[in-house]
Amino acid sequence: MLATRKSDNGPTRLHSQGLDLRHLTGESLELRAGTHLLATMAFGFNESSMPEFTIPLHPVVAPCKASIWTCSQAPRVSESSETLSLVETEQLLLGSIRLPAERIEHATKLAYRTIQKTIQQRTGFRLIRLWNYLPGINLADEGVERYRLFSRARHDVLASSGYRMSSDLPAASAVGSENGPLVIHFLAGSGELTTVENPRQVSAYRYPRTYGPRSPSFSRAVIYNSELGRQLFLSGTASIIGHETIAPQEPEKQTQVTLDNLSALLESAGYPKLNSLGSSASWVVYIRDPSHIDRIRPLITDHLHPESRIIYLQGDICRKELMVEIEGTVFC
Questions:
Q1: Helices marked H in 248-323
Q2: Fewer CB atoms near the end CB (10 Å): N or C, the chain?
Q3: Taking the complete model, does pTM exceed 0.85, yes or no?
């Protein structure tokens, strides 16, 4: 397990770990021997100067500068262009793609085709996890919500690429950004992948057509095993039971249902309870309305271990009536 030691004046010290994710706050970062920086993901969006691996959302709670991915295998930059960035090791590929988002369905198809082509060039690699950031996720293009257009394009590319909806879809999140391009970060690797579904929820890929012309194509969670260790990637999880939204527009009740859903998902994956994961777990909480932070955060801190790593970002959720979404990564 990667250990963190913090002091008021000292840096965050990272011990050697196969793969890990940290959220950098006010302190500096110090890597221990055997740990390599894989990527720094800064928050926010600047159209004139958008760094590689940007997360185009703003922290709700300051200070939080960036998310930091580290790895025990030395990485190399294999692609760095205006639209595509790739960093890889022998067994892992971390990428970011950025495309104009005015025609979201077209952009999504192009992005996912590029991702698939990139992965297929590496023998034995599979998609593990995706983070999708869509400007205007709940707005309409020609009468159809942009998230539904995104979902249709994603489904069509993955289905045509041979993905089986019931067994090998990656974990994913799709969050609305304020403006800018479509941004997709993706993680792929050559290890063993096991998908996990939530007994409290209908699998997203089996949603009825009420939610769009194509169902969202992702697994609720993915367990990934490789020489870099074992990781559990929990997809963006919200206040949904079955396929229906619970407690529309009510942030506290939605947060409680979301935490209950995460607990059920951890149990299905064979992992310990939320409040026992400690520093091995990293959480991202997306909040539609930043003014809700004081209503949402106490519930989350009550349910999570005090050593768990948590950041709160402002982002729109895939359904208009949803106020909060939580994703997690467990490194053990």
A1: 251-269, 293-303
A2: N
A3: yes
